[in-house]
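Lab channel / #folding
Pinned by the channel admin:
"Please post every new chain as: sequence first, then the structure tokens as a reply. Keep commentary short and put observations after the output so the thread stays searchable."

First post following the new format, from NK:
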Amino acid sequence: MRKINPTIKLIIGTLITLIIAFQQNLVLNVTIAVLTLLITLTLLSPKQNAFAFTLVALTAVGIYFTGLNFKSTAVSPAARQLYALQLASRDVAFAGLGLTFSASTKLPDFIHSLQQQLHLSNRFAYGILASFHMLPLIRNEVANIRYSFYARGLSANLLSPRTLMPILVKSIRWSESLALAMESKGLDNSPRTQTIVFTIHWYDWCYAISWLTLTYLLSI
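Reply from TO:
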């Protein structure tokens, strides 16, 4: 699964999501949910699987009872049960598709694949990567601000303005420094060589055709 081209995975996942979203097909929802969750089991560690599956289960249960209780009382109980199951299974299918993609795709590979297959702008692509790598800096800065408040005997709520304002100011400064650094390195939208080349192989086409064929057959 990790060898599949990220752009192909994105396109196929998006198409399947749209097909599921515009249908009320319990068999399709359950099949996609089971297959994607089984694939996710092979990609994540047991601890990650337990956490992810717990969140998915809680969300599905909440949506099930929401659909069961807020469906019109004019319909029969069996129809209400079916409607609730369709909503819950659709939610699990969406979650399974998202988990499969995120567990098998690294952000740098995804961005580079978008550059090479979908011609994503170089500035936009490297801007996303740079912003992603700034997240640890923001996390460390939040910790430093909270420690400084604790040292003075003050509380430091994460959502407090006196915690958020310094982070906002420093984020703006970091973004300005990052933009200047990118310009100084001559980063523009001109053609660039790639250290890692992503191409579409035969197994990518097999992956795409298999999923689309299965989804089409279950949608008939």
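NK: The chain is about 75% helix and 0% strand.
TO: also worth noting, The mean pLDDT is 87.
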